[in-house]
Amino acid sequence: HYRLPRSPLNALDYQRYFEAICNNATLALFIMDERQHCIYMNPAAEELTGYTLSEVQGRPLHDVVHHTRPDGRSYPLSECPIDRAFPQNNQEQGEEIFVHKEGHFYPVAYTASPIREAHGVVGTIIEVRNITQDKINTQARQDAIARERQLRQEAETAKTQTEQILQGITDAFSVFDHNWCFTFVNQAAIDTIGLPKAQILGQCLWDLFPDLVGTPLYEKYQQALASQTTVEFEFLYPTWNRWFQFRVYPSATSIATFTADITERKRTEQALQQSEARFRSLFDCNIIPLGIWTSEGSVVDANQALLDLIGYAQEDLKAGRINWRELTPPEYHERDRIALVETETRGYSTPHEKEYIHKAGHRVPILIGGGAFPGDSSSGFFFALDLSDRYRAQAELQEAQTQLKAALQAGAISTWRWDILNNRVITDESFAHLFNVDPVKASQGLAIDSFISGIHEDDRDRVVASIQKAMETGESYVAEYRVRTASGEERWVAARGCAEYDSHGNPISFPGAIA
């Protein structure tokens, strides 16, 4: 601070004091002449702009620090609000964006005041302050306010969502204070208690249900509160003759409880016990081969039908010498693993075909399926049906089909069947080649038009009429006609067929052959 002398000051003293004040000011100061050229800038202004007085002196300040907008567009002097202080002889204030000597933009607050003398305005003094930090602080405050508002909204939303979830769960959910007075109940709890919500909240649990005092439930609740540990238990409420499962979660300020009515589950367990007894009866009667396995693969029980199927005796079973994994060929291990996962997940596995290795060394094809015992994932039961007869029949059928196909091929005979109900023609491979159609599509069924279009146009109407007559009369269809092969060759064929009818006499299919 400078203290002015009491004696009159001359012009030189005023200039010295003025320079001292400006040089020590933290506010950037610029002085412009009547042409709006900069004639002075203090050190704070030099630090603010990055320019020295010698670089700016005699030039319009706008052309040095205010010539470009942040988006890169040119900023004409005529649009500059700072420049209006001189021509309008009026103080201008506001915020603008300056360009630093190094090229970066920064926000400033300015006050541009005209310098007046008796004969008029002779220049402008401009005060400028860098407000970058102010902007950052303002934005930080706005962000903090917005974040606080967002957190409040999220907290309200979370509270609402939590209440909605608790209201939507099927278990009865209640919250008590440490005096066992209700502070919250969901709809399931209201329905279970059987009283309006207004008559529950604020009431003591033991006042609403005095018959619970002294019961195992009462002791478990008090234990949870005293030890501040979670307690889970099942309880039969004699007054209602219903079973409930309770989960009690104490905290420093409250006790939360989930209550599930498990009466039906208990009844199911009883029914399951009866079912197991029935299963044992079925197991021992040897209607189908049955066994009981463990997760390690051991067969711990088997009826005689299963033992006969795999070639083992009761002595082998009792000695623990039967292991279903060892009985399974390696190529079926993965399928067995999938079945085991199914059993663990769903309680049963989808029946599938596989082979077992008989004690004598040969393989036995079977259909196997099974399930886990309720409440025990470490063991289960399985059945096995001998498929040997079916496999032999399939092999015989395959051999007969192969022989028939060979005979047809040897006789150059092709077969077809018109599915009248679906209007599709299903053919063998040689027929498809003869009529120049895709064999795969032909085996799946072609539109009847594809078959008709393969007949020579001069013979087409006659063949169609012959087929129609055979369907109407039940007589055999016999016709000779020409077809054009894929190579373009015209070939004569002889065709025979007959219609098949349903119980009402309606034609449903028309099989035939051509040679």
Could you characterize the architecture of this molecule?
A hairpin with a 5-residue loop joins strand 13 and strand 14. With 515 residues, this protein is α+β, with helices and mostly antiparallel strands. About 1% of the residues have low confidence.
Quickly describe the structure.
The chain has 515 residues and is an alpha+beta fold.
Could you give the topology of this structure?
Layout: H1 11-24, E1 28-32, E2 38-41, H2 43-49, H3 53-56, H4 61-65, H5 85-88, E3 92-99, E4 105-117, E5 120-130, H6 132-168, E6 172-176, E7 182-185, H7 187-193, H8 205-208, H9 216-227, E8 231-237, E9 242-250, E10 255-261, H10 263-284, E11 290-294, E12 299-302, H11 304-310, H12 314-318, H13 333-346, E13 348-357, E14 363-373, E15 376-386, H14 388-410, E16 414-419, E17 424-427, H15 429-434, H16 439-444, E18 446-447, H17 448-453, H18 460-473, E19 477-484, E20 490-497, E21 500-501, E22 507-514
Antiparallel strand pairs: 1-2, 1-5, 3-4, 4-5, 6-7, 6-10, 8-9, 9-10, 11-12, 11-15, 13-14, 14-15, 16-17, 16-22, 17-18, 19-20, 20-22, 21-22
Strand content: 25-35%
Structural class of the secondary elements? alpha+beta
Number of strands: 22
Shape assignment: flat
Q: Roughly what is the average pLDDT, rounded to an integer?
A: 84
Largest sheet descriptor: 7 strands, antiparallel
Radius of gyration: 50 Å
Determine the N-to-C terminus distance.
Answer: 125 Å
| Count of helical regions | 18
* Helix proportion: 25-40%
Uncertain regions spanning at least 5 consecutive residues: 407-412
